[in-house]
Amino acid sequence: VESVLKAAQENLDRKTMNRALGYDFDWLVSRVLGLFGLTFNELLTGGKQRRMVQARSVLCYWGMRELGISAVSISKKLNIASSTASESAMKGRQIVEEHALKLMEEDKSEERPLNPQACERRP
After folding, report:
1. Three-state SS for 69?
2. What CATH number is given for 2-103 in this structure?
3. DSSP state of 65
4. Helix (H, G, I), strand (E, B), or coil: what is residue 67?
């Protein structure tokens, strides 16, 4: 029980710290756009192109998990259903893990947009 409570407290502390440092939805959008090499309009078009879907999924995941933004709030900003935002967050987690994406920039000189070929479905 103590380990579960400790993990929950660490998760809350991380979200609080991120918000206190000024990381908000607008910052997150810029971060995701940079990682995927997309424009703001491309992100909001609602297209089914793989890169756009992955970017929205990562945005939903990091927004909910790292910044504590509700699925309802994210869904309103992206003009999608809240259930879609929740489902996207689950997909976003897989994408973050598969591509070892980091929310925070470690070294800006090494940062490049995510390779579109890396987003293609594997055989």
Report:
1. coil
2. 1.10.1750.10
3. H
4. coil
Q: Do the beta carbons of residue 25 and residue 59 sit within 8 Å?
A: no
Whether pTM > 0.85 for this model: the answer is no
Q: What is the pLDDT of residues 64-115, one digit of tens each?
A: 999 999 999 999 999 999 999 999 999 999 999 999 999 987 644 444 455 5
**Confidence tier at 122 by pLDDT (50, 70, 90):** very low
Query: Under a CB-based contact definition with an 8 Å cutoff, are residues 35 and 57 in contact?
Result: no
Would you list the domain boundaries of the chain?
A: 2-103
Cα–chain center distance at 27: 11
Query: How many Å apart are CA 36 and CA 56, to the nearest integer?
Result: 10
CA–CA separation, 23 and 29 (whole Å): 10
The per-residue pLDDT for range 11-64, each reduced to its tens digit, is: 667 667 777 677 899 999 999 999 999 999 998 887 789 999 999 999 999 999
Phi, psi of 21 (to 5 degrees): -80, 0
Do residues 70 and 25 lie in contact, with contact meaning Cβ atoms separated by under 8 Å? no
The CB density around residue 95, as the number of other CB atoms within 10 Å, is 19
